[in-house]
Write a structure and sequence with these properties.
Layout lengths: L6 E2 L2 E5 L6 H10 L3 E4 L1 H9 L5 E2 H5 L14 H8 L5 H9 L7 E4 L4 H6 L4 H6 L4 H11 L5 E3 L5 H10 L3 E2 L1 H29 L13 E6 L9 E5 L10 E4 L5 H14 L6 E6 L2 E7 L3 H11 L1 H4 L3 E4 L2 E2 L1 H9 L5 E4 L1 E2 L1 H10 L4 E4 L8 E6 L2 E6 L11 E2 L7 H15 L6 E5 L2 E6 L5 H12 L7 E4 L6 H9 L4 E4 L6 H11 L2 E4 L9
Parallel strand pairs: 2-3, 2-5, 3-4, 5-6, 13-15, 14-16, 15-17, 23-24, 24-25
Antiparallel strand pairs: 1-7, 8-9, 10-17, 11-12, 11-13, 18-19, 20-25, 21-22, 21-23
Helix pairs in contact: 4-8, 8-10, 12-14, 14-15, 17-18, 18-19
Length: 517
């Protein structure tokens, strides 16, 4: 069926790096009488597949040169792509110069991002910056009223279905959709190149910031059901971006956000660690000699809040861990590096509603983005800069050896908790977390109320300094024995004097704080 806006494909140019699915596509086009034209390695590939193909060099009457850098950059090619079929003067110009129109372009690009990701030398990265491919794609996409442009092997089946349904032609809507995809692809390609150049020159915040990301999946909805959402990944992802879902319903926006927070926290520790997250805040975290114990101790922090939360396992999930999870409150999602077969079978049997993810360890975050309407805030990712060995004791009382260990854990948990935040840890186990409070005193009161008697003798962390002694005294009165905080308040002397009077040790980080908004 051919109607207004339909264009029949008579001549196609195929010039690709990724030759996946190319031979069947070319064969199907040739069977419909489409004349095939190609260049370089693509032409050799199609010839070896026994398909009739005209080499671009015979069309341009100019040989491929500069080690393949110049093949298709020629008026005989770009004229065939850019000429408007509704303009007699364009068609007359083609005829005057012996140029035939090109109705279909199939092209994909040199693997620049993959070359960078494998750590190639700068020279190799530069050689993988495609020039001719983007020029062809942009030309065909601009002239989508008349030309079909296909940039992804995943679209080959759709192209063949379209021409089969339309007796060798394509609709304007079809061509326009592919043109939009083509411009997105070249934009992302250029963004990846710009980002690499910026990194090579040590430019963290370039004057023009281009972001290249590909959609991994459409989500059911965003934070709330009336919001649309999708999940995008940049480059070659790790952590949650590279996760495989083994069980459960499709992931939601909140699932992904909470899972990233949980897995990043579990990955902070060298000892076996488990983190439980609810609404992007820790409601349990622990380190131990083994993962089953770490899970049990993480759960004990706040088992009520853990219901419907995300459980992140810092390692392989074994049957013993799965047995404890199955006996505990329903988790909305579990993420681990891998699963033993019997553990996976048990969770599939006893926790059918729980989403199960397997993912490599997350890579350190580089940048963070936050939208402000149509604008963006961009910052370096929050990292732990000052190590515990560099912290300073600011009080007469010194932390005990076990409190030093708990201070280090409390500091990491607190840094991954929404401000104002207080975290209390006892013997490697978070026992109370106060998150997202306008008042630091209230954050301390919340942490103490959750910890109850378990706070006694433990250690606590505050994500920013105590502006007054009151918040610190809430912890001291609950029996907390040591606190780590940035210091730097104009009332530090007053705060430390109150700590000395209460008999609590206070350690400062030299001003390093961890606000999280």
């Amino acid at each position: 069926m051919v109607n207004e806006g339909s264009r029949r494909i008579a001549r196609a140019l195929l010039s690709v790096h990724d030759k996946t699915g190319l031979a069947p596509l070319a064969a199907a086009l040739a069977a419909r009488g489409v004349a095939l034209m190609s260049s370089g390695g693509t032409a050799r590939f199609l010839t070896e597949a026994g398909l009739p193909v005209v080499d671009v060099a015979s069309v341009t009457r100019f040989p491929e040169m500069l080690d393949g850098r110049v093949k298709t950059l020629h008026p005989a090619i770009h004229g065939g792509l850019l000429a408007r079929r509704d303009r007699p003067d364009h068609l007359a110009a083609l005829a005057a110069h012996g140029i035939a129109p090109i109705d279909l372009l199939v092209s994909n690009l040199y693997p620049f991002a993959a070359t960078v990701a494998r750590g190639a030398a700068a020279e190799d990265c530069i050689e993988n910056i495609d020039i001719g491919g983007p020029a062809l794609i942009r030309a065909a996409a601009k002239n989508h009223d008349d030309v079909v442009v296909v940039t992804d092997p995943g679209d080959y089946a759709g192209l063949l279905a379209e021409v089969a349904a339309r007796d060798g032609a394509t609709s304007l809507d079809f061509r326009r959709a592919l043109a939009a995809r083509a411009f997105s692809r070249t934009a992302a390609y250029d963004a990846a190149i710009a980002a690499w150049f910026a990194r090579e020159h040590g430019e963290t915040f370039p004057e023009l910031l281009a972001i290249a990301a590909s959609r991994r999946q459409k989500l059911r909805y965003g934070e709330n059901p009336h919001q649309e959402a999708a999940f995008y990944v940049d480059g070659l992802p790790a952590g949650v971006g590279a996760a495989r879902q083994l069980q459960g319903k499709d992931l939601s926006y909140n699932n992904l956000n909470d899972t990233d927070a949980a897995y990043a926290l579990a990955a902070e520790f060298s000892r076996p660690a488990v983190a439980i997250i609810k609404h992007a805040n820790p409601c349990g975290a622990a380190v131990a000699g083994d993962l089953p114990t770490a899970y049990q101790r993480a759960l004990e922090c706040d088992p009520v809040s853990a219901f419907g939360g995300v459980v992140a396992i810092g390692g392989r999930l074994t049957l013993e861990v799965s047995e404890r999870i199955a006996a505990g409150p329903q988790a909305d999602l579990i993420i681990a590096s891998s699963y033993d077969d019997d553990a996976l079978a048990q969770l599939s049997s006893k926790r059918k509603a729980t989403r199960l993810l397997s993912a490599p360890a997350p890579e350190p975050l580089v940048r963070q983005f936050r939208s402000l309407g149509a604008s963006f805030l961009v910052q370096d990712a929050d990292r732990f800069v000052v190590q515990p060995s560099e912290w300073q004791v600011a009080t007469k009382k010194q932390p005990t050896e076990s409190q030093w260990r708990d201070l280090a854990l409390a500091w990491k948990v607190c840094a991954r908790t929404t401000s104002n935040a207080i975290a209390i840890v006892t013997d490697g186990q978070a026992v109370g977390v106060g998150a997202g409070q306008q008042s630091r005193v209230v954050a301390a009161e919340l942490a103490v109320s959750k910890a109850e008697s378990r706070a006694r003798g433990g250690a606590a962390a505050s994500d920013a300094f105590f502006p007054f002694p009151d918040g610190l005294l809430v912890l001291a009165n609950a029996g907390v024995g040591a606190v780590v905080q940035p210091g730097g308040s104009i009332r530090d002397d007053e705060v430390m004097a109150a700590a000395d009077e209460a008999g609590i040790a206070v350690v400062t980080t030299g001003g390093e704080r961890h606000f999280r908004h």
